[in-house]
Design brief:
By secondary structure, the chain is an all-alpha fold. It has a domain of 114 residues: Orthogonal Bundle (Cytochrome Bc1 Complex, Chain D, domain 2). Helix content is 37%, strand content 2%. Strands 1-2 form a two-stranded antiparallel ribbon. The chain is elongated. Bound molecules: heme C (HEC).
């Protein structure tokens, strides 16, 4: 009898201690038996930080440094890469660090497929799905006017847009703009190709063409 009473009262204490605090509020953070990495130390804006002698958590940029990979578009010598121009004139030359090879064209083809086909269509004639559904019809890339565009002018168009065409500078990294421009050039050539452009040993078996 004595034992049963003890067990019952102990059980009561346990139940009360588990349920007793439910519903009450507290200023203290909840008990977190297994913190994992839920709460980590960090410095918030304007917070002090004892690590530095001046106790300022927000640090000024170290004099004479700049962040990696973020050359300002407006810096001298950046005109070629960002604007597609050399000394104020659109250029057909690729900027330093970008080489014309199969990898560049492949990358351009892939990016073109993502960003340009909706309007310009897979072959560049201007029959993309958005156009079929009512968007302004762009000229075909094979038009003499656009065939005469230097690569830089295509890159420039991607940065600033043109007429009814929106710009793409936030979506497409600058190097990819050159890859896309090179692919547009490949598309243009492919549409007006002359059999003489094919190496002699590969001409046999060609159909169509001149
Ligand atoms: C939302 C539809 C749309 C998309 C997407 C689009 N374009 Fe265009 N693009 C147009 C239209 C419309 C024009 C014709 C602009 C005009 O003359 O008003 C045009 C014109 C152009 C021109 C000629 C500009 C000029 O000076 O006449 C180039 C070059 C071009 N686009 C390249 C591209 C490339 C490369 C992409 C992919 C990154 C692309 N466009 C994506 C709609 C689009």
């Amino acid at each position: 009898m004595q034992n049963k009473l003890t067990i019952a009262s102990m059980a009561l204490v346990v139940v009360a201690s588990i349920t007793g605090c439910r519903g009450s509020t507290s200023e203290l953070p909840p008990i977190h038996p297994n913190p994992n990495m839920d709460q980590q130390w960090r410095v918030d804006r304007q917070e002090p930080d004892d690590f530095f002698p001046d106790r300022r958590g927000m640090r000024p940029r170290v004099l004479g440094t700049m962040s990696h990979g973020a050359l300002a578009e407006t810096d001298a010598g950046q005109e070629h890469l960002w604007e597609g121009k050399i000394d104020g004139e659109w250029t057909d030359e690729l900027p330093e660090g970008i080489t014309l090879d199969a990898a560049l064209i492949d990358r351009g083809e892939e990016r073109y497929g993502i960003y340009c086909t909706p309007c310009h269509g897979a072959t560049g004639v201007g029959n993309g799905m958005a156009v079929q559904r009512g968007y302004a019809i762009p000229q075909s890339f094979t038009e003499p006017r656009l065939r005469a565009y230097p690569l830089g002018r295509i890159v420039y168009t991607l940065k600033y847009g043109a007429g009814n065409m929106p710009n793409y500078h936030t979506q497409i990294q600058v190097k990819d703009r050159w890859a896309i421009a090179s692919y547009v050039r490949a598309l243009q050539i492919s549409q007006v190709a002359d059999a003489k452009m094919v190496p002699a040993d590969k001409r046999a078996g060609l159909t169509g063409g001149k």
